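Progress narrative, work stream C.
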Amino acid sequence: MPDHREEETLELEVAGVRYRSDDGAFAVIDAMATDADGAPGGHHVVVGPVGHLDAGDRVLATGQRQQHPKHGERFRVQRLQSVAPTDDEAVSRVLQRVPGVGPRAADALIERFGAELLERLDDNPRDVLRRVKGLTGEKLADAVEAWRAEAGPRAVRLLLERHGLDAATIGRVIRALGDDPDVDLLRADPYRLTSRSGIGFPTADAIALALGEDPASDDRKRAAVVHALALSEDDGHCHLPHDELVRRTTRLLAGRDAPWSTVDALAPGVALALKELIDDHAVVDREGRVASLELDEDEALLATIVARMSTDDPVLGIDVPAEPPTEDGTGGTGGAGGNPLPSAEQWEAVRQACGRRLSILTGGPGTGKTQTMRALVQVLKDAGSSVLLCAPTGKAARRLAEATGARATTIHRLLGFVPGDGFQHDEDDPIPDGGMLVVDEASMLPLDLAVALLRAVGPSTHVLLVGDVDQLAPVGPGRVLQDLLESQRVPAVRLSRIFRQAERSLIVRTAHAMNRGEPPITQPGPDDVRDFFFIDRSDALTAADEVVSLATRRLPAHYDVPAVGGVQVLAPQRRGACGVEALNARMREILNPGGRVAKGSALREGDRVMQTRNDHEAEVMNGELGMLVRVDGDDALLAMDDGRTVRLPLIRLDTWDLAYACTVHKAQGSSIPVAVVPVVTEHRHMLTRNLLYTAVTRAEKACVMVGDRAAVRQALGRVDGATRYTALPDRIREALEHATR
């Protein structure tokens, strides 16, 4: 066990980085302590949330010394504060970014030219840089060009260096400011950064305070309100109640560790800042619900579209019999050699889809959603009507096409997405196909994508939304499918009967049991297919050992699937011994220890990888999985799980993560041959019934759950981790009332 001691604060200068996690959050670094005069002191191995630091950075680190049984004494950091470099140190760092200028040359130039150095460099960089030993000819020309080309970024870097901002933050700011960073604009309004990609309020606030911003200023409060609202959208909310937004903003301004008295004292000022934003129409307040302009408009537009479609007369003109067919299309009665015939409730969904312009089909695994879509496609083909199927991801679309025999595509491709221009189809240029549009995995639809899709549906097209509302909510604001059902204004069929073949699967039976709050089924009957297993490991480290062993060796051999791509670990969260980060590191060292590293990335050839943001240009969506097959010059070749090969510039690998293990949230919409799911008490804050249900239903051949039965019981007792603030059901009802007046 570690030897915990008293908390202390050290002034440290980073000497080097031993290890940095792929997401940059955790690192092990070598650092030298310095005294009050900056003189060097003892060496320390520092661990903790220090992945943003680089050699030369100086910080005040607060933490405890701990004795590691294998690696000796380490200083575990709890809190960090940057130490601003002297002017000479800041200038030296800027100079060292010029090719051919090292620390000694930079110091020599500073000593020779003093305070006039930067001005002389801007006026005549060749005259200054030719004095650096070894810089002649082509090297000198490259150095001069580098100095001139970096004028804007250099000014920003120098400003932020002098105020103690770390190298990683400075890099993010420069990237956010674009091709021509304006240091004067940054100095005048640092909170403007919060509107730029990748820069949040904490970074902009640190810059503003370093540049002298008054902590009690109105600008700071308004920026904090806007950021708190944006963070709520990341949590899936379409709005926040007024008082909740004030509470979140005051906590953001006060800091995580501030006493409640400090937080409460900020509330009146924050409420005033919020009122000013509302009065300026920067945010919208509708009866105490505060939302961004974009989400408020999206929600209102979707409610209007849904209200119109749910009351429109059908346009297909197909007379569907009241009773399901008793023969399949070949003259047989279904079953062996043909497709199973639809049940009465499945047939009702077919009739409803043909008889209403907008309808919903929902149900759990094994209830026949795919069979219903197959029957619907057959009815439409027999009637000579067109049908188009789509899904959020490429793999789901391919699976849908194979199951139904109809053309299927991703939603983004269907809408004609063009990077930089957005969706090409809308109400003025609708999707060209009439007939029927079937949207599978509709539980994954966030508000903005649902709006883009339905507004592009022309007046001659019916829409069927298909999904499982008991899965996790979408990644993004809203819970559209659940809200449409809750409105009780959109006709829906919920399939409940589990069919005989599916009922033999322990995966299917366990999923339904857990959805009712019951424990997983681990004892098969005589006719059951044993495809679900539970391995009891109460300790997180022991559970992690079991997960790694199963995923890398035992399960690939038993099920004859590749370890990379055939087995997927689905963890509740990123941190901890059974978290995504630790499991990825361990599994890669077994499955791909010697892969060639992709330049500028932490990824290797042969790695299992996942896209973490929507890349519309490459048509690879957030959560899609694949393998980094090869580095080819400045490009990377990736083999995606949906069968595509994608070529990307190496620089764009920054949005890809290791994915031997991934979170359950990221796996929504995916199907995996064999899934391994750790469930331990260290993840208790993330554990919900919906999360376990989603994880288990990703597996095709087998699912192995490893962990603590107490943690499973805790998860099954929580139906959802958090409420999502949406107003869509009420707005649909209101829109219908207005339409019928």
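Work stream C, second folded protein:
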Amino acid sequence: MTDISPDLRRQWEELADKVRHHRNLYYNAQPVISDAEFDLLYQSLQKLEKDHPELVVPDSPTLQVGAPTSSAFADVAHLERMMSLDNVFSREELAHWLDKTPGPYLTELKIDGLSIDLVFENGLLIRAATRGDGTVGEDITDNARVIPDIPHKLKGDFPPLLEVRGEVFIRPEDFPALNELRQKEGGKPFANPRNTAAGGLRQKNPEDVKKRKLRMICHGIGAREGFEPQTQYEAYEKLKSWGLPVSEYTRRAETADEVHEAVAYWAEHRHDAIHETDGLVIKVDNVEQQRRLGATSRAPRWAIAYKYPPEEVTTTLLDIQVSVGRTGRATPFAILKPVLVSGSTVSLATLHNPDEVKRKGVLIGDTVVVRKAGEIIPEVLGPVADLRDGTEREFIFPDNCPSCGTKLAPAREGDADWRCPNTRSCPAQLAQRLKYLAGRGAFDIEALGEKGAIDLTSRGILADEGDLFDLTEDRLELSELYTNKAGKVNSSGRKLLDNLATVRETDLWRVIVALSIRHVGPTAARALAARYKSMDALVDAPVNDLAETDGVGMVIAESFKDWFEVDWHREIVRKWREAGVSMQDSNEQATSLTLEGLTVVATGKLENFTRDEVKEAILSRGGKAAGSVSKNTDYVVVGEKPGSKAAKAEELGVRVLNEQEFIQLLETGTV
């Protein structure tokens, strides 16, 4: 037997203790680290044991499922052991598993909730239990009976004995109201829906369980009599016929390529599901093949979970400050200890408005859960309240604008957002409006970014955006960013002046967007420009007439008219007009709406278009440039390496176009 050094044994014990501790919190209390952080801990322990097999003992956490039960409920033995799943974290690891595990397969969206075991005898629900350690769980039958998705009695030709495995969860859309209710009742805020579901299942009073709006989906079967399905898919179809809820996202996959396509699809669409998910489960479909493959001490060899990069992590909330945007909205934002999430380092996250800060229950100094879903701005979900040590402090929303000192107030009574009313000369608002009008969705002024906007406004070079197109080389010499050491305009400054000269002749809709009118984005601006053709016609149009424009409506129409009631707003338009900015649509644009009423999705790399150019080509011709394929999609344009959208189009019967066909569609409206 190999001798084990004291340092190596100590390293193993520390890792094993951490894994046991956090696993117990996950199953029996409130976690204080994210799932991703636990996965890293667990993988470290696995690697240590792989490198030093002599460390492995029978009670190693890598050989166990779940965690021992708490003492709150009576223990109950499962009829058949509940196992866990092994995970893979890369396409290569998944490919290796698929190579040694032949299909056909099922792909099932992983549910981020709490496992439950249900036993039906002669069609009647006689027991419900938590996972526990996989062999013994907690008896939560009374609580399960008040979950609407769980039937008290099966229907149809059910077997005399059936053990069903599922996941209890809370829909993300129900979570905010539930957390708000918990705080009103004096409880600590939950960090995420999964914790709320776990706490709900362990309420002593079933009436309290009802308040949690728990849902349940079945994802497996245990012991049974008189029921021997040949495939997992057949088992799910039977469960559904007996009145049990099964996932609408489960799909058959004949080949490994189809599994990879499903993984790619849900990487983009994981937020389309009714529940939170962090991965895709792949199972061998044939039950006899499942038996032949067998299981390890903790997981079946015929199933694997592909885990997506984490979208939630925990970090420290160092401070809360307030930013002021281009429309005057004062937004609290979190300053975080930098943390890696969804492939990028996050140090700032939105907190939306003062009411949200209170509702989330976060304090400065808290350990908080942060989410960054895809390209969405990072958001603080809530605190890990159990880690508080008393040094945390409450955030006080300021009375005055942090940029100009003007008193903040809601724009209208009952508004959740607070705004700075000093719209014309508040430095923060003006800088943000300049940055916005220089963006690709407006004038597209390449040489004017956020630093340039701050420089031009803080030095008084521009009183407001109306002065932008009157900018001269002499005025620009007052800048720091756009001048050299000798105080003369540098290459960036000359580029800015050249940009301004070029973009004067632009589309009317871009001018409308550049005005920063509240609620009037590119879609509404395009619709208004296409209908009225000139700024004068738009300004003269009655509000009811504006509201009848397709895609506009009364809220946008009233906001547009209200904006032009302000003297200095009209002065911006006058100055731009006198500086040569185009205030009407060209005849060419007015007659090129070849895609009007059509929804087009583009995927993959095109030879003659960038991603922005594809979107612009579709929108400028009256079409809708959608980001995902649905039954309402008219065409999907496919370039090189198209990903899952092309497969989704074929599945739904949506017509697929190559690049040349797309060009023909743009020109003629037909292919």
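The first strand starts at residue 75 and ends at 77. No further action is required on this item.
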